[in-house]
Amino acid sequence: MIIPALDLMNGNIVRLYQGCFHKQRIYSNNPLLYLEKYFQQGAKIIHLVDLEGAKNPTNRQIHLLHKLLRANQHNNLQIGGGIRSTKDIADLLKLGAKRVVFSSQGIKNPYKTKKWFEYFGSESLVLAIDIRMNSTGTNNVVINGWQTNTTTTLQEIIEQYHNIGLKHVLCTDISKDGTLTGSNTILYQTICKTWPDIKFQSSGGIKNLDEIHKLRDTGVTSIIIGRALLEEKFTISEAISCWQNA
Q: Is 7 among the residues known to form the active site?
């Protein structure tokens, strides 16, 4: 399906360029307005990212997230950014989040993360894997709001959780994020073929409707789209129709 994305910083909707916090553009100071507009246009799920929390978990925009959850009647929000504890997840799910997205803890604290799958179930959790492709072709995972490089590869982190019921994975090639330069279709073809039982969400680089056709063919189950929708390159209904007819 098509999943619109809203990245939140200081209460505003913003987009970063290739994950750089100093390369951001503000689109609106009214996230609630965009939530309602996207649902009215046909979105079934909306992806929210607390960039403040991703950068520094002590600065999570808790009040804003709670406000959006309480005001949203659709109960179809997927929320991530700065998730560090069991309480973080429990609070968001209790308020009506459909799924909670985590990233850094999957690398830094696998024991605790595996307990989350046991406690909350795989349907309520999304493992976000953000990668930086290097010159040798290796895709290393980056954490802490894309500020910290690791030596862990995409393949290693998926295998670590695959056998305990990992179901939803959001994979982003950060060199594509916010660029409107096209998606890394080869990456998605590879991972969808390797782990056909995992529901992969692609993210980063969508520039036009042709990209949706290409990504649907890779085997991903969802496409997250941010900047292209904010800049009205196409509408949500057009994207949904393209996905359905791909």
A: yes
